[in-house]
Automatic annotation (TrEMBL):
Name of this protein: Transport permease protein
Lineage of the organism: Bacteria, Bacillati, Actinomycetota, Actinomycetes, Micromonosporales
Pfam families found in the cross-reference section: ABC2_membrane
The UniProt record lists the keyword tRNA-binding: no
Topology of the protein relative to the lipid bilayer: Multi-pass membrane protein
Listed transmembrane segments: 32-55, 67-89, 123-141, 147-171, 178-196, 235-258
Keywords, sorted A to Z: Antibiotic resistance, Cell membrane, Membrane, Transmembrane, Transmembrane helix, Transport
Localization terms from the record: Cell membrane; Membrane
Domain of life: Bacteria
Amino acid sequence: MTTLPARRLRFAVSDSLVLTGRALAHAVRQPVPVLVGLLFPVLLVLMFGYLFGGAMTVPGGGDYREFLLPGMFAMTVAFGIEATYTAVASDTARGVTDRFRTLPMAPSAVVTGRAAADLLHSAAGLAVMLACGLAVGWQWRAGPARALAAVGLLLLLRFALIWVGIHLALVLRRPESVVALQILVWPVGFTSNAFVAPETMPGWLAAVAEWNPLSATVAACRELFGNPGWGGDSFAAQHAVALAVVWPVLLIAVFLPLSVRRWRHLGR
């Protein structure tokens, strides 16, 4: 006989899959935002790689585009938080979330379904970025296993940021507040090692950039892809792969339960 916790888990997974399908169906029916989200990072790669790349110097030598691409992969992951926020805030503002709360479904299904759909979108976007990188001359040089590990770290960071976006959307509830989110995301993204080495920054800003969770993922990906990196002898520089796991896990541990709890208490 199936135990009660097992039945609840089965129903929660089933409900989450249904709502994941709903989110994916919306993307198919409204492809323009998806296409824009895929093409914008490609435009940034072309701009930084070809317009500014000739003026950039990689510490220790190496091709700037190979230095840049892991950073652009991570930036694409970070900017995805805006799409997550907009989708959840729009459902909340239009009353869709309230409708879901009246249905006999698992309390976590709405947010987990959204998280699963956004992770699939991100995987597709990352595949586009990898293809773009290969087209402009980037390549991984440390073997396919380490390259897959790097992709896994990128998706782990995206999964963590999905939960941050869901929680913020459930707190603010207004789609137009995405502008305020952009004001936070863009400085965090650029205050990292994605485009330049922290050692080129002022001392205090370099310390902030080194300990930026995004920097940990970028540095770890450069190491795993075998691309040029900025090096450094700080703890953050020497343990980039470990921090690229620890930071996202901490974010998930904080914002996943907060998101589920916030969803349960909407309207109270």
